[in-house]
Each structure stands twice: as C-alpha cells, then as structure tokens.
Input
Amino acid sequence: AEGIPLCPVKRTPPRLQAASAMPGRNKARKQWQFLKGDETLLKPMILKDIAERTGLDISTISRVSNSKYIQTDFGVFPVKYFFSESMQTTDGEEVSSKEIKKILTDVIAVEDKKKPVTDEKLMEILNEKGYKIARRTVAKYREQLNIPVARLRKEI
Output
C-alpha cells in the first residue's frame, strides 16, 4: 500500500483528514492485485467494508470517497471506482461485477456480427467459465455497459 499517493486534502479538520486517508489506504491493501495493472483482479468491496476496518460510519466513508482520487502507475481513479458489487463463482470465490462486465465486453467484441450472442448465450458462457449468474443479471450488466440487445447489434 506504500507508494500510492492520495490527492491532498486542503482546509479540512484534522479528524476528517485522517478519515479521508483511511479509505484510500484500506482500498490499496484490498485492491493490491488491481493496482499492479489487471482490472479483472479488482476485488468486490462495499462502503461497509471500509467503515468496519476504520471504525467510521458508512456515511463518513461515502462523503470522504465522493471527491477523492487515487493515483496509480496507470492512471488516476475516483475512489468510488473501487467499490463494486460481488458475485460468487461455482467454487465459492467472491469476484467483482467489474470482472464479469469485462468478460461480457470481450465476448461481445469478438462475436459474429451477423449472429450476435444473446443474453441467454452470454449467461451460458459465463456459467461455463464458473460464474453463477442469471440471464437477467447479464442483461442488467449489458445495459450498464451501454451495449444494445443482440437483435440491435446484428449487422446484415
């Protein structure tokens, strides 16, 4: 977690300065693999995780996280970027929804445009890879990624 600078906090009371540094340091510990450069290794994390580790209220963590950024070797990210939902694989391992969204994006990017992959087929592909996911969840993630349904992606 050392060497990951946080943007400076100015004109903030000392207690809030300490609080604003804690989420970044805690995120850096939890997201170490991601900070090495692989977005698919982003660990699922919610505000409650940081609140429990720091002993601060969830609302304090949320307020502090809203306007802060973390600088890494490959870019500057808003602190909120590191919060994501979690899903379980068939092995019981917790994975970030961002990892699943990356797989969806990759599969759709290489699909046959004359016969695009449906949400049902995307669900089957993810299930084969060990991700327990429903078709409705695939549709939700696809919409969040601003990717149209299969019939609208079809090229003639």
About this structure: The longest helix spans residues 14-30. The first strand starts at residue 69 and ends at 72.
